[in-house]
Design goal:
The protein has 24 helices and 26 strands. Strand 15 (339-350) and strand 16 form a beta hairpin. The longest helix is centred in the N-terminal third of the chain and has 24 residues, at 3-26. The protein binds 2-(butylsulfanyl)adenosine (IVH).
Length: 672
């Protein structure tokens, strides 16, 4: 390649990278995948290395992100916020290690491996132990001052735990848990608002809200991963990354628990392989591993080139985003009658799985993202959630794309479709619609609910189509005689199925409640309601106010439960379940309502001097109290012991009463 040819290519690459950066950082609406972006940047770096004359100060290789938007005051970084070089294979990791060892000479080289959290990087300044200012990365030198928003994030301590350094700048990643992401999107979907394509977009948009209340609603989280500047009063000064992480933990930050030290590059590679395989087990998205030289003096010695430190690299997992073609949009009808648009895609490999279908959520999502049939689209597959279409790649349009319209008749039963103003979903108005009945019945028999073996999707479809099962209670009216109507159902499988149906009768209230498919009542909520109310009668009679006394039950869930039991058809169906012998009581003993701690909820954290967690739980429950896992406004007491962590911080923040073991014992009846 001549320099002239290189110049043309460099110009082209820069324009594409600038555009991608703008869409990613400013619009929060990426048009190319991370992998594609990395490839462009790599090519540019290579060309600039071969032809140094082409390297200009305004090249995207010379800075780290997008310009700060003008809505926030600038936040100047005391030390530039660098980004990382990428590695994509074990061989590249070995090359990185060789380079490090060569440059380090005699200096010690071992590594710290950290998960690369997929959120957005921020810096936090603490003066005299208190959070003073916090900002985003921006272009690496100047970011946005988003202090007010960061203060709403529960895992960002407002005060450090003593002994705090006189000044410290902490860096880390703001992210959204997958579970919080699903909840956020479900809420937005109900409210008719646009849903987010991935947790990262939701987190980064959340941090840059103009109203901190809106940030707080997203329930963001924070992992600290670096100490950028430390000036110490009395506390310890970290000399290695491993020590820095320990210090951060002591100061009250959440440090990811999966960090590991690695003496050799083989250990590093093993860590990378392990977490690439296990990423779906985590409740947050990771897109790789960050490998850092442990010793700070060695880091100093290695220094950095252009935008990247030489002492660290990020190992990128295989991408889980890809382009595909949207061949068609088909509608399926859900349990509650919702018309769900699904993408039919040209098969594409994403993270080792062939994806052919993806969700498009609702008509509003399709319209607001301007997704058209025939478009080249960006598809992501994140964890165990169904793949989703992120958006079209508009530059690939040919003009033959078609705009999608929601049908006004149910595609299954032909009934009218209702689309209440302000609601995201269109619904089939016919409760007896075969698609709805099928979904309800299938859900009731499914593993998480009544767990009826042999009653899978295929049988559910046959039984509903043949009219053998028109509602849930009909399942218990099945007998050998009726089952002869089902094609390919032999005597043996018929008997097995009937035995499984019989067996399901004693699953207990929690499973029945899950199976009923009441809106917003999933497995967890069902278990709580079953434990608190004991029987279905008690639950059916409960007022919204009584329902809301249960952990995690807000007005939305309470309203939905009331609505369900207010309908005569549902009550009648429950009577038929009872008549068939289905247990409608909780198998767990009802919670005591007379003990001294009745109605009080507790959270345990840290190590207590003389009680194990189980013992403390048993004592509290025996006195009528309840122990839950996480601190919320509904928590009455947090019992804190040695090395209590974020739960204690959260309790302080919410003003929840904090007890030590002695204070807890004082509340218990004397016999315990
Ligand atoms: S260290 C020089 N550690 O990955 C070191 N970064 O390009 C710079 N990230 O957007 C960062 N998890 O926000 C580091 N454990 C971790 C990280 C991490 C996620 C992000 C970071 C930045 C990108 C690095």
């Amino acid at each position: 390649m001549t320099e002239r040819e290189a110049r043309a290519r460099v110009d082209d690459l820069r324009a594409r990278i600038d555009d991608a950066n703008y869409r990613y950082y400013v619009l929060d609406d990426p048009a190319i995948t991370d992998a594609e972006f990395d490839a462009l940047l790599r090519e540019l770096i290579e060309l600039e290395t071969r032809f140094p004359a082409l390297r200009t100060p305004d090249s995207p290789t010379q800075r780290v992100g997008a310009p700060a938007s003008e809505r926030f005051a600038p936040y100047e970084h005391a030390r530039p916020m660098l980004s990382l070089s990428n590695t994509f294979s074990a061989d590249e990791l070995r090359a990185f290690d060789e380079r490090v060892r060569k440059l380090a000479g005699e200096a010690p080289v071992s590594y710290v491996c950290e998960l690369k959290i997929d959120g957005l990087a921020i810096a936090l300044d603490y003066r005299g132990g208190s959070l003073d200012r916090g900002g985003t990365r921006g272009d690496g030198r100047t970011g946005e001052d988003v202090t007010a928003n960061l203060r709403t994030i529960p895992t960002i301590p407002l005060r450090l735990r003593p002994p705090a350094p006189s000044f410290i700048e902490v860096r880390g990643e703001v992210y959204l848990r997958k579970s919080d992401f699903e909840r956020l999107n479900a809420r937005r979907e109900r409210a008719g608002a646009a849903v987010f394509a991935n947790p990262r977009n939701a987190a980064s948009g959340g941090v840059r809200q103009l109203d901190p209340k809106l940030t707080a609603e997203r329930r963001l989280s924070f992992f600290a991963y670096a100490v950028a500047v430390q000036q110490n009063g009395e506390g310890a000064v970290a000399r290695t990354q491993w020590e820095a992480l320990a210090l951060l933990r002591e100061l009250g930050f959440h440090v990811n628990e999966n960090i590991e030290r690695a003496a050799t590059i083989d250990d590093v590679i093993a860590y990378c392989d392990r977490w690439e395989a296990r990423r779906d087990e985590l409740d947050y998205e990771i897109d790789g591993v960050v490998v850092k030289v442990d010793d700070f003096a060695t880091q100093e010695l290695l220094g950095s080139v252009a935008r990247d430190p030489r002492w660290a690299t990020s190992f990128k997992f295989k991408p889980r985003e890809a382009r595909s073609k949207l061949l068609d949009i088909v509608i399926t009808v859900g349990r509650t009658g919702t018309l769900n648009p699904n993408a039919v895609l040209e098969p594409v490999q994403i993270g080792g799985v062939t994806v052919r279908n993806a969700t498009l959520h609702n008509a509003e999502y399709i319209a607001s993202n301007d997704i058209r049939i025939g478009d080249t689209v960006l598809v992501t597959r994140a964890g165990d959630v169904i793949p989703r279409v992120v958006g079209p790649i508009a530059s690939e349009r040919t003009g033959h794309e078609r705009i999608f319209a929601m049908p006004d008749r149910c595609p299954v039963c032909g009934s009218a479709v209702d689309h209440p103003p302000g609601e995201a979903m269109s619904r089939c108005t016919n409760a007896a619609c075969a698609a709805q009945v099928y979904e309800r019945v299938r859900h009731f028999a499914s593993r998480g609910a009544m767990d009826i073996e042999g009653f899978g999707d295929v049988f559910a479809e046959q039984a509903t189509q043949l009219g053998l099962v028109r509602d849930i209670a009909d399942i218990y009216a099945l007998d050998a005689q009726r089952l002869t109507a089902v094609p390919r159902m032999g005597e043996k499988s018929s008997a097995n199925l009937l035995a499984a149906i019989e067996g399901s009768k004693s699953r207990g209230l929690a499973r029945v409640l899950t199976g009923l498919g009441i809106r917003f009542v999933g497995e967890q909520t069902a278990a709580i309601l079953a434990a608190d109310f004991g029987t279905i009668e008690a639950l059916a009679e409960a007022t919204e106010e009584e329902l809301q006394r249960s952990e995690g039950i807000g007005p939305e869930v309470a309203g939905s439960v009331r609505l369900f039991f207010a309908q005569p058809a549902n009550r009648e169906m429950i009577e038929r379940l009872r008549a068939a012998g289905v247990s409608l009581a909780s198998s767990e003993p009802r919670r005591r309502t007379d003990g001294p701690l009745a109605g009080k909820s507790f959270v345990l954290t840290g190590t207590l001097p003389s009680l194990t967690r189980e013992e403390a739980t048993a004592l509290i429950e025996a006195a009528g109290g309840r122990v839950t896992g996480s601190v919320s406004k509904k928590t009455d007491y947090v019992v804190a012991g040695e090395s209590a962590g974020s739960k204690l911080a959260k309790a302080e923040q919410l003003g929840v009463a904090i007890l030590d073991e002695e204070a807890l014992r004082a509340m218990l009846p004397p016999a315990s």
